[in-house]
Amino acid sequence: MFSTTHQIPSILIVDDSTAILKLLHEATKDMGEVFFATNGSDAILIAQDKKPDLVLLDIEMPDMNGYEVFKKIKTIPGLEEVPILFVTGHDDQGHELKTLELGGVDYIQKPINISITRARVKNQLTLIEQKARIQKHAHEMALLVNSLPAFVAYWDAQDNNIFCNDAVGQWFGIPAENMIGKHASEILPPIAWEKVKNLIHLAPNGEEQSVDITCRVGDVKRFGQVKIVPHTEGTLENGYLMLINDITSRKQAEQTLIDEKERIRITLNSIGDAVIATDTDGNVTFLNPIAENMTGWCLGKAIGEPIENVMPLVDADSGEAMRNPIRVALEEERIVGMALNCALGKSMKSAIAVEDSAAPIRNHDGQITGAIIVFHDVSEARAMAIKMTHLAQHDSLTNLPNRLLLRDRALQSIKQHATSNQKLAMVMVDLDDFKSVNELVGHDVGDMVLQQVAYELQKELKLEGNLFRPGGDEFLILLSNLSSSIQVTRFIQKLMAIFQSKWEARGQHFKITISVGVSVYPEDSRDLDELYRHSEAALFSAKDSGKNQYKFYNQGLEKKLQLKQELESSLKTTSGRKSFEIYYQPKVNVHSKNMIGVEALVRWRNASGELIPPGEFISLSEESGLIIPLGEYVLTEACRQAVAWKESGHELILAVNVSIIQFEDSKFLSMLKRVLEDSKISPHMLELELTESVLAKDIEYARKLIEEIRLLGVKIALDDFGTGYSSLSYINGFPLDVLKIDQSFVRNMLRSKTDQTIIAAIIQMANGLNLKLVAEGVETQEHADELEKMGCEIMQGYFFSRPVTADTITSTLEESKSIFKDMLSSIEP
């Protein structure tokens, strides 16, 4: 209240008389904190330190008089306004007048009267408290005014500025301190001043009005609403208060609304759809140009007309009048779509197909104020939809129903046959080796042949919509209402007879045979999926049996097909590939009694957890081409395992089988390089095992590819030697590293002199060609002993170990004494 650092007032008493000091202290001790000084110098120091709220100052003092001390105190920062009461023993008016002229607020006459002194001091403290309160209120009021989001200014009667709260000049670019004294016409923009000047003249009449003005400071444009409050009473100078509220956001919103309305108007007039709006009674309030063209009504004549007059609707099928969706939208207060067969017009003859929807229009309170309907001409679209439906359901080359329509018709047939004693047959037809026709004469001629086949089948068999072309060189036929399978057989004989003659296209003549697979409902199929799958399995069987024949479905075909599908599914995903487990069969050097390598062998565990033998799934993977991703997976995982063994201190030669399908793949070499790089395996640790059939199919291609593989540092082994196309004339020309004696010779060598002689010849040939030798299928001690005597040191077979997991190989390698050394300790060196 008094000082920013004191809770109660502080009083400084200055007098060189101890007696006077005591009296003054007695008079003031309960009014605040009291400090004393007995000379002028001490008084100045105490004033600088304590910043008193009131000073009682003696005039007559030895070092400097009270007038000098007064002047010194008034120069101290913060004490410029401190009230000072002079204490004097002079009773003449000259001293009294001088103290008041100097700035003293009052004086105390000696001798000291305590009551009078208390009264004078109390009056000053009260004035100090009131002044502080007034200053506080003034500060708060100024803070409030300056914090208002509006422009507040006071002007005198001559329009000169007295006060303004725009400290930084955001409204007119002139800060408040520079605005004082300026005429309003110098502050406000000319147009704004003209508006405000008129408003000022109206204000004294008590008419509360406002005007909107625009002002710009730099790139910032503001809109303001000006109000004038006149002032002619009280202590303030006559004039007026000017209040300017910022209405920029409102103006921008209004402008945005105007722009949006214009944009909507242009949009509605520019879009390709017709738009009609109505009131709550369904009377037209708006049409855009497209609606005018489609209805034949112009906007001026249509306004106020019922929607049915302007937009009559009929059923495109029956021609009956239809209720306009506008009515439903208004009654049910929801969006309503037009019927699919809706047409605009009074009769079917002149009507055009239309579609779209109607919706109620609501105001900001959610109340419905009308409705709007948006529609467009769909005559061409409906015609196109019919055409597209046909194209979607028919083969573009032959115009036969495709797989989509096949499914629909087959389901209908199955539903019909489910409640009858008749049978339904699905006959799947595939043109044998049609790929070679395309390769020989080109796809254009091939397509002409397919068109001829489709035409002849329709003409000769009279299938009446039951002939389908799912794709490629495959056709499918549905035979309904059969009483026996003999009818199917007779039909197929007639079908195959069509292909006895040659086909001709662009002067080319072709002989085409077909393979046919048949499945019958409900004899061997319960539903459409089984019917299709079983006919496909029968077709595969016909092709596997030599083609140009037909087969009926049996359960063996189904099992093979299911296995193939499951195999394909397993190879498609990373998680599926984990169902393929890699086993390793050791290769042993019987002299050193050490494991020197392993052969990687893949096993497949199907979804049921059953381990499928390689003989069942390897051939399937080769037939379908799945051997390529499967082979890459096995090679990759085996190489990673070989690197892991090497890092643990056991370097083994890794043998991996390569099928003829893999070997003929154009990307095989690049795949091999990628696996070598990714797995970080040393190339000399990898040995690829090829069969003689791989080499014999294309000798030059095989020789070139093997040379490129060996340039990488990878070894080549010839597997199952002696059982295939063995010919020393070309074997000698291949850059091989290893020969593997086929297990069929090893298995019978103890009972057959012929097999023993063949083995001896192979060993001699390998030594002559400087090739390493491995004997497969070693199952007994006697076999191992005999092979060792004949000069074969490296062997593999059940006698040493069956194919085992990588963990088992790792455990064996880590044992201090190899299991194989223990097993071979009885073999004579």
Automatic annotation (TrEMBL):
GO terms classed as biological process: phosphorelay signal transduction system
Keywords: Phosphoprotein
Start and end residues of each PAS domain: 137-207, 260-333
Keyword Phosphoprotein: yes
One Pfam family here: EAL
Domain annotation EAL: ranges: 560-817
Family matches, as PROSITE patterns: EAL (PS50883), GGDEF (PS50887), PAS (PS50112), RESPONSE_REGULATORY (PS50110)
4-aspartylphosphate PTM positions: D58
InterPro entries associated with the record: Biofilm_reg_signaling, CheY-like_superfamily, EAL_dom, EAL_sf, GGDEF_dom, Nucleotide_cyclase, PAS, PAS-like_dom_sf
SUPFAM superfamilies: CheY-like, EAL domain-like, Nucleotide cyclase, PYP-like sensor domain (PAS domain)
Domain GGDEF: 422-555
Residues in Response regulatory domain copies: 10-125
PANTHER family, A to Z: DIGUANYLATE CYCLASE DGCE-RELATED, DIGUANYLATE CYCLASE DGCP
Protein name: Response regulator receiver modulated diguanylate cyclase/phosphodiesterase with PAS/PAC sensor
Organism expressing this protein natively: Marinomonas communis
